[in-house]
Structure formats: C-alpha cells, structure tokens
Design brief:
The protein has 399 residues and is an all-alpha fold. It contains 20 helices and no strands. Helix 6 packs parallel to helix 8. The longest helix is centred in the middle third of the chain and has 29 residues. It is globular, with a radius of gyration of 21 Å.
C-alpha cells in the first residue's frame, strides 16, 4: 500500500487525471452493464443488449442517421402541418468524425461512436485538470477532476453522444481564453459551435470578458491589439452561433428550419408555438409544478433556484475560488440555456457545459466531505441511468 501511495504521488499530473477518470469509467461501465442486462426490448435494441448497442440508443440513433444519411432537404411535417423531429437538431462534427472512423476501420456505428467518445472523455478530463490548475491548488484541482468524472450525468461521456467531444473542445477554448490566446481559440470555437450549440453563449462570454478586461485595465494591462484580437474572436463566435441556422435555411429553404426543429421536441409538453426568449423556463417550471404537485407557481421555484445558484457562484468561498473568467462562462451559458431551452429530462445533460462549477465543490478539504461528495455523486449517477438512460416501455425521459 505504501508503494502504491508513493507511486501515485510521483506520477505526473496528467497520469493522475487519466487514472481518476478511468477508474470512474470502470464504475460507470459496471452500472451500465447491469442496466443493459435488465433492459427489455425497446425501439433501439432487443432485450439485454451488449454495451455498445445499449450506449447507442436515444440521440445516438439520430447521430447515426446523420452519419449514414446526412440531413433532409425537405422538413418532415406532422399531421397538423408543424415541423416534426428531424436530424437538423443535431450538429455535424461528431457524426462526421464517427463516419470517418467507420470508413477507415470498417467498424459498425456502435463501436466507431465509442472509439470517438471514450478517448475524447479522457482528453476532456486532462484539459479540465489544466483548467482547474489556473484557479485551484494541485490537490483541489485533482479532486475537481474526481467530481467531474463521477458527476451524475457523466455516463453521457462514454456513449454515442457528442458531449465528450464538446467538453474537450470547450475546455481547450476556455483555457486559451484564460491565457489570453484569443486568435488561437478561433478554430476551436468554430469546431465546437458545430459540435453542440454554443456559439452564442461563448460570444456572450467573450463580450463579458472584454468588459472585465477593460474594467481592470489599470491593474492588468489590456492593449489595443489584445482588444482587437478579442473582438475578432467574439465576432467569429457570434457568427458561428447562427451558422447552423443559416446552413439549415440554405438546404431546406426555410429560414426557421433549425428553430422549428428544436421546438418540435417540446411540443409534447406545451404544444407548438414561436420561440420567445426566456419564456421556456417559465413554461417548464409551471408545467412540472402542475404535473408533480398539482399547483401553479413554478416560476417562484425557478426564481429560488436561480437565487441559490447566484449566491453559490458569487458569495461562497468555492464560487469565488473559480476566478472571474470561469464564472463569466458559467453565467453566459446559464443565460443562454434560460433564453432558449425548455427544461425536461435532458436538462441534466445540458448542464454539462457548466463543468467548471465542479471546482467550487472541490475547495473544501474535509475528508468526510470529499468521500460523501463522491458517494452521493455515484448514487445520483445510478438514479440518472435508471430515470433517463434505460428504456421503460413508452419512455418520455430522453437523456
């Protein structure tokens, strides 16, 4: 045991991060294999599927459709004449990358998707460690990696979803911005924005970062050349935030092809309607309140949750430890989600880009606290797999 501890302490930081993440994935894999063994026949697999097939259900099938058939030039319509669910809701980088692996290796979709997702998850853990070391000491940064690795929705990093690739790209982009390498971040932002919707959120983040750098320029010099580079990067990010909408318009002929497609996924909750910024969360809060408690006033719960989040981010020791830049990203992405997303079962997965917040929970040094945090995360991971990933008959809880 002493030898193991010594070897652990002298291991390079990246090896420690990889080992932590790998250990967490072993635990998650065991959970998923248990659920797969007890999975009944469903729209995607037969009963008791293997791991690869079980990891390719839900949105994995949509990515497979994109990889093999591309995007429709004609939008599907429901019996009521509304745009139905279709592949335009899924960005192209991940399925195209998997398709390239399939062509080069002749692997089936299920395996090729994991060949992309799993290594990207390991890469995201390594980059996340570097990100945390910008603001935390070594031990806290490593524990932040632990929390990132065992997070309740972390199984999504080892399935046929784009999240692991996206978090890898997002971590690199944030790291470059923190190091003020603005132009170097542009190619990362471009690819990232076509992996998961994020260009507008990142543009808002860069705008807030610009304001902050200008505000503190007396203590931290901010040259005109740096300001120009940051503005260029922000403009590119803003353009990439609408690029997919323009591409969908060009291919389908409908200027609202992408937004109509996204709205189709919330129609079973609140019906069809226009996208009104910041309305979806109020609608969703009221919908869920009526469903579970049989009463209105969900917006009051939403305000309470937001107030709690603001307090944790700006007025606690852990939140302040993240520094200004990472907190600006958390705020920007949260504002973006509040503006466009309707809260449903996939909310937990869509909170993944807030992963720098794990650093705030890594600050306390109590051993009891840290062990408890890991155990609670693993329990919630099991709950997430049970509630969202496994398919239970007519299942309306897509992850």
């Amino acid at each position: 045991m002493r030898t193991i501890r010594v070897r652990w302490r002298v291991a390079p930081w990246w090896a420690q991060a990889l080992l932590v993440y790998g250990a967490a994935r072993i635990v998650t894999t065991a959970m998923m294999l248990w659920f797969a063994a007890h999975q009944e026949q469903n729209p995607w697999t037969g009963a008791s599927p293997g791991y690869a097939a079980f990891a390719s259900i839900w949105d994995g099938r949509w990515y497979q459709i994109v990889a093999l058939g591309g995007y429709p030039s004609e939008l599907p319509l429901t019996d009521g004449g509304h745009v139905g669910e279709n592949a335009w809701a899924f960005m192209p980088v991940y399925p195209v990358l998997v398709r390239i692996i399939m062509v080069l290796t002749h692997l089936p979709w299920e395996i090729a998707a994991l060949v992309v997702s799993i290594p990207c998850g390991f890469g995201a853990a390594v980059v996340f460690h570097r990100l945390m070391r910008q603001v935390l000491d070594e031990r806290s940064a490593l524990f932040a990696v632990v929390l990132f690795s065992v997070a309740p929705a972390s199984p999504v990093l080892q399935v046929a979803y784009a999240e692991s690739l996206y978090l890898l790209l997002l971590g690199v982009a944030l790291l470059l911005i923190m190091r003020h390498r603005y132009l170097s971040a542009i190619p990362v932002i471009v690819v990232m924005a076509l992996t998961r919707p994020s260009g507008l959120a990142f543009a808002l983040f860069l705008l807030l970062h610009l304001v902050h750098r200008f505000w503190v320029r007396a203590r931290h010099p901010f040259s005109l050349a740096e300001a120009v580079r940051l503005c260029i990067t922000g403009l590119v990010s803003a353009f990439m935030g609408v690029a997919w909408l323009l591409i969908a318009w060009a291919v389908t002929g409908s200027p609202t092809a992408y937004t109509d497609t996204e709205l189709a996924w919330r129609s079973s909750y609140v019906g069809y309607g226009p996208l009104i910024p910041f309305e979806p969360w109020i609608q969703g809060a009221n919908w869920w309140m009526r469903r579970w408690l049989g009463m209105d006033g969900g917006w009051l719960l939403l305000i309470a949750l937001l107030a709690f989040a603001v307090y944790g981010l700006f007025f606690t020791r852990g939140g302040r430890a993240l520094g200004v830049t990472l907190r600006l990203w958390i705020v920007s992405y949260a504002v973006y989600l509040l503006a466009v997303f309707f809260p449903q079962s996939s909310t937990f997965r869509l909170l993944a880009p807030l992963f720098p917040a794990a650093g705030a929970f890594a600050v306390p040094r109590s051993r009891i606290y840290r062990v408890t945090a890991v155990l609670v995360s693993l329990v919630l991971q099991w709950v997430w797999l049970w509630a969202c990933w496994q398919v239970d008959g007519y299942d309306w809880t897509p992850p």
